[in-house]
Specification:
Layout (H helix, E strand, L loop, with lengths): L1 E6 L5 E4 L3 H28 L3 H4 L4 H9 L2 H10 L3 H23 L2 H6 L10 H10 L6 H13 L18 E5 L10 E5 L1 E3 L7 E7 L2 E7 L9 E3 L3 E7 L6 E10 L2 E6 L2 E12 L7 E7 L5 E12 L2 E12 L1 H5 L6 H7 L3 H8 L7 E7 L4 E6 L14 E2 L21 E4 L17 H10 L11 H4 L8 H8 L6 H12 L9 H18 L24 H7 L1 H4 L10 H13 L6 H4 L30 E3 L3 E8 L2 E5 L7 E3 L17 H6 L3 E2 L8 E2 L6 E2 L3
Parallel strand pairs: 2-6, 10-18
Antiparallel strand pairs: 1-2, 1-25, 1-26, 3-4, 3-19, 4-22, 5-21, 6-7, 7-8, 8-9, 9-16, 10-11, 10-15, 11-12, 12-13, 14-15, 16-17, 20-21, 22-23, 23-24
Helix pairs in contact: 1-5, 1-7, 4-7, 10-11, 15-19, 16-17, 16-19
Organism: Streptomyces liliifuscus
GO molecular function: hydrolase activity, acting on carbon-nitrogen (but not peptide) bonds, in linear amides; metal ion binding
GO biological process, one term: antibiotic biosynthetic process
């Protein structure tokens, strides 16, 4: 068998092979050539071996991954795949292994860290997927709520709920044919993740006689899971904000027979073994890996002496994690080849019935006018308390009782999915506020003649409706000093758009940060400010008081649970402080800061950005902590069902992950300005790479 690699003007890979297995091999080999450092780092993340080349700072992640049994879960899920899917994933892995040596030779990060490319196992792509999404359901928020309840009382359990100003999520919208110029549906949006360098998503075109699909792949994972267009049907997703991972407080005891865990029916056997984490430049770290009937123990607790049934025993506490792929031994990967073969909305719908995680809201449309708006994924049925906090493993009533039916809705002209409390409301606890969803719907309602290029205006919209609650408090202030009064007037005259060249937007952001910092310093919250809270460092982003205040500010300024917090005085003091600062534009403060495993090159450009976490242009920072943005649109797309060649896409940086390569950062100007590159699928318009083309595939 042979495969060929073509490139368009942006260096995007277009892969052609005579059959699906040859195409999977080609996709794996291309990932190894274009993204060798990225995918090898992700393999190590999935196995818990990053400290072996990154040093002691990576031990917390490795410890968590090993205790959560991610690699073993990936292996189990691979073993339950349908035979055809297993062969397809295996062909991808064979391609990765065939291409890694060459890809690593082009990637200087290997030499910089002393890392040599390794060997991928058949289940490694499933492990990579798990490592990307194990924290996606936000279970560490339950640790935070537990501490809030313990320190402030159970009535404060949801005090910091993010349905006030919330963290960035994803945008997606679908416009039916009766509202487009062509008479066929359009699907558009932008997933919001950490802006990684190299990027999380890879634009790709996969072609064989059985199917021809364009979309965004995840390097290290075969197929096109989240955003794709087969020519006759297209699909896209956003995070449903559902709750499907549970934490159990375990009581464990060690006896002469091993480890036991206390469950609703008494003491039951648990498994335990030891693993060693290799550490570059340091001593290896040994850990116990324990798993109860609920799930793997991911957090240690204090130990104490106690009397067991068979004599003296050491009793300790821990926290176990229960997550669907570990329970079901299914990650949903059988869906991936079915999506590539899909021709209609019904095909996509049927395939997604088998999806597991992450749980997503999905839009799909086909060339026959079919439309789909549904939730896909596994959400267990259980007690509501499971969704809020750590629950006691020994108390009955917290067991999983099957799987929720996933909601769906009819599409009447327009469908929007922006992580709001909407279609997926029965499946979650905290959602994004409605600001982005409401704004997108309002913008879409303004026309019935939408065309693909029109969508850029929605992608780049900077209106911040979330500013209203704080500005209403500013409007009620009186008796201010002269400078503060002038600032107040500027803020109240501001158009509430977080434009990069706006000084008023910067004024607002500075005021908000000052308010956040003062609320976080309030005596009523002092018990939550004592660092660190008693949990592993890997969960710190969910346990940072200032960040929690930033995204729960609207609720905190109005709550009656903090009677000592004088919100008017807080806003007044913050306004007086901010008024003394030299004026700047929002783009001078709010700059792109991509996430990297290794430090950025000295002098690398950090361009200024418009937007904010509750704008449609959701370039997220953390008020009170930093104005730098490491999270935002990790891709943008417009899928046209009238003609796929009219579709558009872009990523924040570029198609390739090789430092210094022409296509490493060449899409950044498009991304910054809101422009999109054309989707090209005609191989006659592409350039074949001779050294890749017609290469024999040993399978």
């Amino acid at each position: 068998m042979a495969s060929s690699t073509y490139r368009d003007a942006w260096g995007i890979p277009h892969l052609r092979a005579p059959d699906p297995l040859g195409l999977a091999f080609a996709q794996g080999r291309n990932a190894a050539h274009d993204r060798a450092w990225q995918i090898e780092a992700e393999r190590h993340r999935s196995q818990g071996t990053t400290a072996s080349f990154l040093g002691a700072g990576a031990v917390p992640w490795d410890r968590f991954v090993r205790r959560a049994r991610l690699d073993d879960t990936a292996r189990r899920c691979f073993e339950t795949l349908e035979e055809e899917t297993a062969a397809w994933v295996s062909a991808y892995v064979d391609g990765v292994n065939a291409g890694l040596e060459r890809g690593a030779a082009d990637a200087p990060e290997f030499a910089a860290t002393g890392l040599a490319p390794g060997t991928w196992r058949k289940w490694t792509p499933l492990g990579v997927w798990l490592a990307h999404h194990i924290l996606f359901a936000g279970f560490p928020t339950k640790l935070w709520r537990e501490e809030v309840a313990r320190r402030l009382g159970d009535e404060a359990l949801e005090l910091f709920a993010a349905d006030g100003p919330g963290t960035s999520g994803s945008n997606g919208w679908m416009v039916a044919g009766d509202r487009t110029a062509s008479g066929a549906a359009l699907i558009a949006g932008d997933p919001h993740r950490f802006i990684q360098d190299p990027g999380f998503y890879q634009q790709i075109h996969l072609s064989c006689p059985e199917y021809d699909v364009v979309g965004f792949a995840v390097p290290g994972v075969p197929g096109i899971a989240h955003f794709g267009h087969t020519g006759t049907v297209a699909w896209a997703i956003t995070n449903a904000m559902s709750d499907y991972h549970d934490l159990y407080r375990e009581r464990l005891r060690t006896t002469g027979d091993g480890v036991e865990a206390l469950g609703p029916e008494g003491w039951r056997p648990a498994t335990r073994h030891r693993e060693t984490i290799p550490v570059a430049g340091g001593d290896p770290v040994e850990i116990d890996v324990i798993e109860t009937e609920r799930g793997p123990v991911v957090i240690d607790g204090p130990a104490e002496g106690a009397e067991g049934d068979s004599g003296p025993a050491t009793v300790s506490e821990g926290i176990s994690l229960r997550y669907p792929p570990r329970v079901t031994e299914d990650l949903g990967f059988d869906v991936l080849p079915a999506l590539l073969r899909a021709r209609t909305v019904a095909d996509v719908d049927r395939a997604l019935d088998r999806w597991i995680e992450p749980v997503n809201v999905v839009h799909a449309a086909d060339t026959s006018g079919g439309l789909l708006h549904r939730v896909a994924g596994y959400v267990p049925v259980r007690h509501r308390e499971n969704g809020l906090r750590i629950v006691p493993a020994w108390r009955s009533g917290h067991e999983w009782q099957g799987r929720h039916d996933t909601p769906r809705a009819e599409v009447d002209g327009i469908a929007v999915m922006a992580n709001e409390r909407g279609l997926a409301a029965p499946l979650g606890t905290e959602f994004a506020p409605p600001y982005r969803a409401d704004r997108i719907e309002a913008l879409l309602s303004a026309s019935r003649q939408w065309e693909p290029h029109d969508m850029a205006a929605i992608h780049m919209d900077t209106q911040l409706a979330a500013a209203a609650p704080l500005l209403e408090r500013v409007a009620r202030l009186d008796g201010l000093g002269p400078e503060a009064e002038r600032l107040r007037a500027r803020l109240l005259a501001w158009n509430r758009h977080m434009d990069a060249d706006s000084t008023a937007a910067a004024d607002y952001a500075r005021l908000r940060s000052a308010v956040v910092q003062r609320v976080a310093a309030a005596p009523e919250l002092k018990s939550l400010a004592v660092p660190p809270l008693p949990y592993p460092a890997v969960f710190e982003p969910w346990l940072n008081l200032t960040a929690k205040v930033a995204f729960g500010l609207e609720n905190l300024l109005t709550t009656e649970l903090l009677p000592g917090l004088d919100s008017a005085a807080v806003v007044r003091a913050a306004l007086e402080e901010t008024a003394c600062l030299e004026p700047v534009t929002w783009g001078e403060l709010h700059r792109l800061a991509p996430c990297r495993i290794l430090p950025a090159a000295e002098g690398e450009e950090r361009p200024g950005l418009g937007g904010d976490h509750d704008c449609v242009l959701a370039t997220s920072s953390t008020p009170g902590v930093t104005d730098l943005s490491s999270r935002g649109p990790s891709a943008r797309y417009v899928w046209d069902l009238a003609d796929r060649e009219n579709s558009l896409w872009t990523v924040p940086l570029g198609a390739r992950g090789i430092p210094g390569a022409p296509h490493r950062r060449d899409q950044l100007p498009l991304w910054l300005s809101g422009q999109l590159a054309p989707v090209v699928t005609d191989f006659a318009l592409l350039v074949e790479e001779p050294e890749h083309g017609s290469q024999d595939i040993g399978m």
